[in-house]
Structure to design on (260 residues):
């Protein structure tokens, strides 16, 4: 439905034993919350009063983050002429999930930002130029400590082609050994499902990780069968992440052919 005002202003905590509700203000500068605070001074508490054990579990709302991503696709441009010409528009990239092309959904990772000295819990959205598959930027929402709710945009160099999710999945599917393995599993009443492709920062490089599931065509639940990893040039597949990374680092592709 149409949204005209959205803020991440209050965190409500319900006591599971007695049903009491405690409201903690996470954005005290929100004018609507300031009005409610004047009307009901004893209703809202500062976020600092929330127990530490609860604060460590706070996450930026994904629905709000997705709306912020949609606004950023055009409004990251600061040059007036470029903005009105529409020369630098971004988009949310697509990925193959099962047999369908779907937009890459934001995902949570633990990683270290260039502006930080420690790893932290992040909500991340890769972005690509409109109608082009190369990665152009990341938008991250931070959730730890005093950085809760802060957004950070990481731009990639425009003169270097960095593969996006669609290109990496093409690299995976055109690998002869991996594609033949997928074809083998797709027979005899089973179905291969390529899961969500994750783009992860590792130092100054990127690591692409995609889980591979097998599911019976008639009912059944998807079962993790393999993990595919890539550094943007090489691809490796193995039964677990550690083995896949080992094969990637040692420049060999592991494809186990037996039925999982």
């Amino acid at each position: 439905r149409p949204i005209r005002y959205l803020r991440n202003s209050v965190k409500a905590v319900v006591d599971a034993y007695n049903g009491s509700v405690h409201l903690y203000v996470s954005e005290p500068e929100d004018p609507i919350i300031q009005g409610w605070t004047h009307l009901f001074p004893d209703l809202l508490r500062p976020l600092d009063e929330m127990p530490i054990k609860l604060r460590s579990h706070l996450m930026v709302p994904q629905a709000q983050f997705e709306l912020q991503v949609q606004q950023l696709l055009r409004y990251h441009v600061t040059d007036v002429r470029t903005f009105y010409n529409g020369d630098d528009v971004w988009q949310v990239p697509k990925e193959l999930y099962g047999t369908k092309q779907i937009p890459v959904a934001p995902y949570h990772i633990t990683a270290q930002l260039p502006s930080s000295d420690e790893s932290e819990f992040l909500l991340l959205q890769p972005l690509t130029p409109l109608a082009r598959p190369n990665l152009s930027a990341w938008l991250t929402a931070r959730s730890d400590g005093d950085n809760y709710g802060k957004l950070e945009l990481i731009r990639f160099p425009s003169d270097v082609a960095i593969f996006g999710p669609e290109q990496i999945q093409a690299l995976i599917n055109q690998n002869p050994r991996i594609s033949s393995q997928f074809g083998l599993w797709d027979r005899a009443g089973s179905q291969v499902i390529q899961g969500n492709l994750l783009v992860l920062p590792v130092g100054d490089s990127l690591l692409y990780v995609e889980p591979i599931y097998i599911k019976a065509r008639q009912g059944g639940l998807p079962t993790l069968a393999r993990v595919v990893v890539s550094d943007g040039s090489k691809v490796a597949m193995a039964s677990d992440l550690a083995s896949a990374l080992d094969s990637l680092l040692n420049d060999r592709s592991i494809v186990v052919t037996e039925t999982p």
